[in-house]
From TrEMBL:
<dbReference type="InterPro" id="IPR017853">
    <property type="entry name" value="GH"/>
</dbReference>
<dbReference type="InterPro" id="IPR013785">
    <property type="entry name" value="Aldolase_TIM"/>
</dbReference>
<dbReference type="GO" id="GO:0016052">
    <property type="term" value="P:carbohydrate catabolic process"/>
</dbReference>
<feature type="domain" description="Glycosyl hydrolase family 36 C-terminal">
    <location>
        <begin position="163"/>
        <end position="255"/>
    </location>
</feature>
<dbReference type="InterPro" id="IPR002252">
    <property type="entry name" value="Glyco_hydro_36"/>
</dbReference>
<dbReference type="GO" id="GO:0004557">
    <property type="term" value="F:alpha-galactosidase activity"/>
</dbReference>
<dbReference type="Pfam" id="PF16874">
    <property type="entry name" value="Glyco_hydro_36C"/>
</dbReference>
<protein>
    <submittedName>
        <fullName>Alpha-galactosidase</fullName>
    </submittedName>
</protein>
<dbReference type="Pfam" id="PF02065">
    <property type="entry name" value="Melibiase"/>
</dbReference>
<dbReference type="InterPro" id="IPR031705">
    <property type="entry name" value="Glyco_hydro_36_C"/>
</dbReference>
Amino acid sequence: MTEPVHDGRYGLHAQTEACYRLFDELKREFPGPEIESCASGGGRTDAGMRQHADRIWASDSNDPRDRVDIQRYTELIVPPEMIGAHIGPSPAHSTWRATDLSYRAAMSLEGCSGFEWNILECSDDELAQITSFVTLVKELRGILHTGSVHHADFKDPALRARGVVADDGSRGIWVVATVTNLRDALTERLRPAGVCDDRVYRVRMREEIGESRWGWNTPAWMRDARTEDGFEVGGRLLKNIGLQIPPLWPMQAIVLDIREAR
């Protein structure tokens, strides 16, 4: 099973077909559980495996710093709802890098959210944060798994922003994150794709992922975005002027919920 040669013959093709048969037989016998194919070894992430597995695991690394780019490029060929995006412990087993739970949760929103973590080891605070996050996932799953994916472009190599926008432009969920130190103290602006010029939108920061941290030059709109009702802004202004991104510390993220107000 682990060698490309079997019985003196090239065996990888036969092994892959056997893997497909195994998955199909398991799903016939046990139709309830979903199968998530691993990215390493055997039948990997390809068009063939996608016909037999419910989801794929994009990488053996569950470090959110790695995953932010791994998931970005995997979803060029695999729908995000088919990419397992799991919250793991800190430090990550693959890199031993420590990250905030809010950062791990934000990266998990960019695929099919799940956990690769023994939650029996979690503190009471972590369990409360996980509970809040799961409630958020259930609320947003409908748009996250059906909308169109957009990535914003920035000059600063530390910034990432990914949005999932409803086809009718009525709502978008954006994850804005840093992967290292910001280059400039005055941060760039997010101009969310998919908004309509003639509509009014309500912008709200979803803090169910947990506490995120940023520096001192906090944009004024953040104060209102952190309230329960958020604030209203025109689509034309969002598209052309945008929202100045807060000066996030390295490996921090925020989640913005932009939905039609009226």
